[in-house]
Design goal:
Blueprint lengths: L5 H17 L30 H18 L4 E3 L16 E3 L9 H17 L2 H21 L9 H4 L4 H16 L7 H14 L17 E3 L2 H11 L3 H15 E2 L4 E2 L2 E3 L11 H17 L7 H17 L7 E2 L9 E2 H16 L5 H16 L21 H5 L11 H17 L2 E4 L2 E4 L1
Antiparallel strand pairs: 1-2, 3-6, 4-5, 7-8, 9-10
Helix pairs in contact: 2-15, 3-4, 3-6, 3-15, 6-7, 6-8, 8-9, 8-10, 10-11, 10-12, 12-13, 12-15, 13-15
């Protein structure tokens, strides 16, 4: 007997894989005569329904307890282990004490924002104390570190070379001061202002741009690396200009999502819709609506942009509640940090009155249940893509590693937890006719 042609065998394999992956596994033996089939409980891969406030708090506590011990809280001599004090020179050997994260990174600027939101919503001082203690540590070393011109651990904060070095940290310092932080860190805020407004590379029309990996490359990430800092510094017109400059070049109005990179001098712009970069853009839109003056004329257009972007994103949400690493590529992996950012902004938008809770709430609740499933018993956030540059091919994004030590996951999870906590306390979502609805 002749074997089937290769293309027929290949097709059969694809059909088998396809039906294995996507067939509904929740098959019931009941009939409509013995049970109301529409009311049977589906076999959801993640929890379905609104989380209880105490459940949200439990997830937040696991993350907080881990970060409290995993973030450095003093400086030491790298060779001797001796604790550094502000009366000593800040030498090349002076490093942060052992920990899993760097408390001066842009990722930690996001984490500080999440902690401050949690303190505001829960009334617990421990979250803002976490922020104040780390900022006090950094502030204590800046005078001595300024005297050392070599590339020590605070060099990027004092001599930034990219928006990543200073934008989110400048934003976090101003937010902390609004929350009651008393220590003088005007050096950091002044440095952030000078770098964003005067030193970072720009196009002739003054749009912020990078010179890596290629000359005049726009990274969607830079919306967040610059604009929230500008807002906290009161540079509202510059914030609006940069927001529109990125939106006009990088937002795809057919898909209602953003491309990750834009090469200014190129005729074509390959579009890779990386999830976390879309998160940075969405989070920036949220910051614009929260911190622009209430009477600013740009607000209606920015609110419209928020809704357009969410229209695109919500159409791609996976049935598990997550979003994919490449948003519009269902065969790319499910990614935690982007899911957490989208969850935060949707829930925050409802809490602020920008979004209809009936329409947007279920997506946020599903997103939170997905995110919560990735916080393990140690408080590690799993499933987060590591730091990612810019590429013009899909393999780069498909195969980026994930790690529980990717700092990008922690701030978004804290932010998402803060907004979901506020949402479930103030809105009554229940299962009605087998689905989540606002009562």
């Amino acid at each position: 007997m002749m074997s089937k042609p290769f293309f027929m065998r290949y097709t059969l394999v694809l059909l088998f894989v396809s039906t294995s992956l996507f067939a509904q596994k929740n098959i019931t033996a009941a009939s409509d005569a013995t049970a109301p089939l529409h009311a049977l409980q589906p076999d959801y891969p993640t929890h379905y329904g609104a989380a209880k406030p105490e459940e949200v708090q439990s997830v937040i506590d696991r993350v907080f307890n881990y970060l409290e011990v995993a973030t450095p809280n003093h400086f030491v001599n790298k060779t001797t282990g001796a604790v550094w004090s502000p009366s000593q020179p800040f030498e090349d050997q002076t490093v942060f004490s052992k920990g899993d994260f760097r408390p001066i990174s842009y990722e930690w600027g996001v984490t500080y924002s999440g902690m401050l939101e949690l303190s505001r919503i829960t009334g617990s001082a421990k979250y803002k104390d976490y922020v104040f203690n780390r900022l006090n540590l950094i502030a204590s070393a800046i005078p001595a570190a300024q005297k050392n011109e070599s590339k020590h651990v605070l060099h990027g904060l004092i001599h930034p070379r990219a928006l990543d070095d200073i934008g989110a940290m400048g934003m976090a310092v101003v937010k902390a001061k609004k929350a009651g932080f008393q220590t003088d860190m005007s050096f950091v805020t002044k440095r952030a202002s000078d770098f964003i407004l005067k030193e970072e590379h720009r196009l002739p029309d003054r749009t912020l741009v990078r010179i890596r990996p290629l000359h005049h490359t726009m990274w969607l990430d830079d919306m967040y690396m610059a604009i929230p800092g500008l807002l906290q510094l009161g540079e509202y017109e510059e914030a609006v200009f940069q927001f529109n400059a990125y939106r006009k070049r990088m937002f795809n109005p057919s898909l209602n999502i953003y491309m990750h990179g834009y090469l200014v001098d190129a005729e074509e712009h390959p579009e890779f819709h990386w999830a976390r970069a879309n998160g940075w853009a969405l989070l920036t839109t949220c910051e614009m609506l929260e911190f622009l003056p209430a009477n600013h004329p740009a607000r209606p257009e920015i609110l419209n942009q928020l809704k357009l972007h969410l229209k695109g994103l919500m159409s791609y949400q996976d049935g598990t509640g997550f979003w994919h690493q490449l948003i519009d590529k269902n065969d790319s992996y499910l990614e935690t940090s982007a899911t957490a950012i989208y969850t935060y902004v949707i829930a925050k938008g409802i809490n602020m009155g920008w979004l209809d809770p009936k329409i947007y709430g279920p997506a946020a609740l599903l997103g939170w249940n997905a995110v919560a499933s990735k916080v393990n018993e140690k408080g590690h956030v799993e499933g987060t893509c590591v730091g990612t540059g810019l590429a013009w091919d899909p393999a780069f994004y498909y195969y980026r590693p994930i790690s529980p030590f990717a700092a990008h996951g922690y701030g978004p999870v804290l932010l998402a937890g803060s907004a979901i906590m506020e949402l479930v306390k103030n809105k009554n979502y229940q299962i009605n006719d087998s689905a989540v609805h606002l009562k």
